[in-house]
Fold these 2 entries.
Entry 1:
Amino acid sequence: MCVPCRSHLVPGTATAPILPLSARPDQTKTSMGIALFFLGQALLWGVPSGASEESEALCSQTACYTIHWGKHSWADAQEKCKSNGGNLVTTKSQEEALHVQDLLARLPRREAGPEGQARLWIGLHREKGKCYQQHQRLKGFSWASGGEETDYTAWLREPRETCTGRRCVSLHWNATAPSAPGLGWADGPCSGASARAQGYLCKFSFQGMCRRLALAGPGSVTYTTPFGLDSASLAAVPFGSLAAVSCQGQAPGPFLVCTAQEGGGFAWGSSP
């Protein structure tokens, strides 16, 4: 029987076998509509805008990190992250830096281009009129999400000492590093031909995560996250996500929603 294991579900959640779509045409449409409405109510920030472009995602206990390819200005990249409820990525700690490193390590080397290296916008910028600060860890830069606090830095070189123009930071990824991806920060122009970032990294924060669903029989699960990603491979699934269960190649059947529990924690429950 292709049903989610009960240990992953809210107590009382139904786990009946999935019927063929032909046997329940009206119920399928109704369930999908209700589930999508519930997802909209459950999101931290509302319905995501635009289609997902990320090629890979990684979720930790309270955040998801995504990578997006394409040349954009820093401001455009930040707006794309923000429109789906996030910001350009912060790496305020060694732990966050390791999450980003793990995300990049999952990518094929060819993603970094013919030379095995790429530049990706992160959430550090310094506005025009704000000067380089040698004594500060962020050198006068601030996070797109707000603030200048950090316990971690990865400057490849000292940022340019200027106050006359806006400066933005990209993460330099060397996929040819022998063990782990070589990563470091470098500042530069935020837009125009000299802004050479080939993509950007987003971070989406959540109250918590559900475990990925385990099925009691042959089938698959596709997760739709609040930030617009469809994935079958997430190890942790953020609060507010939908899970669509498919059995034996059928179209997705029952929809479950990752919800917060009254006693604490997060679990999968049926859409109302």
Note: Residues 76 and 235 are 30 Å apart (CA to CA).
Entry 2:
Amino acid sequence: MRVSFSQLSGSTGFEPTFDLTAATEMALIPVCCDGGTAIEFGEPSDKCRVKSILRVHNSSFHFKIAAEADIGLANAYIKEYFSFEDQEQGLLDFLLSNEFFSLFLDETMSYSCGMFKTEDEDLKTAQLNKIYSLIDKARVNNEHAVLEIGCGWGSLAIELMTRTGCSYTGNTLSEEQLKYAERKVKEAGLEDNIKFLLCDYRQVPCSRKFDRIISCEMIEHVGHEYMEEFFSCCESLLAEDSLLVLQYSSMPDNRYDKNRRSSDFTKEYIFPGCCIPSLSRITSAMSTSSNLCVEHVENIGIHYHPTLLRWRSKFATNKQKIMRLGFDERFIRMWDYYFVYCMAGFKSRTLGNYQMVFSRPGNTKALGDHPAFPSKPKFS
């Protein structure tokens, strides 16, 4: 028997616990339940580009969704209460080892949004495009001292030195990342001008000022209450004619307060304590705690879907290698859900990813000779 969601809710008085309107504009999702009933979410239309079948394997699925909304959906997927059978294109931490991340990231070990010039561009090239974009927007030259807040595995440090010959300092909280980055820098013969610190960004020594600060997808881990402190700290480390360049994932302003006060899948399972900021949260923190102003804004969020798609594909290919590291099927499904969850957010433009440039007013030394900020072609 096949019924529509509207028929189900109208005949039973059942009300959904979360809004499916936006999702069903892009997908037609029949939910196949025990006993042969199919509940169809969405209607066939020109907007409907994906058709998926959600197959329920355990009746507890319904209770999880009704009682726990999106967290329940995540739990139900991890526990294998349901699965997707897509007819077109498949189902859409610092404590983990370098080896684990290497099994789904590209050779640069960049755990952030890439930038694609073409639809079929490989992930490494897209990540280098992103790195070059940040370097270009920071306008780094060989006389600059650059600080990277959240240096990760050191890929931006190596590219910065190779392209500009600047002096580089980066910080991380991960001993695993630190050892990996130091090894890669030594292999490249760049250790004389690259220094990594194992410390919080607030503990970076203020004995010298930096001409440029770059931070790529780290501010999401700062927390709502500490955004002002982040900008205040950055300004205290910046030289007179300097620039701050950030890349970060973003939440729409009208959803930010509700989201930060509630839990969701990523905060529950992947990044405990993270806070995806809105654009206005960033600018308000900047204006109330520093003398900085915004010089450039670009939303590259459309590039995150293909980035995540490639991570998920490589993760699936290396599933057995990941399990040999000691992870079980539940862990595999949790990460698979994480990729899909984020892909949906960026594909639907619910989430964004901004590159922003900040400066103090009147900074003609850094900005005066440049008519515009460089920008990469948009993925389409």
Note: The chain has two domains: 2-86, 98-367.
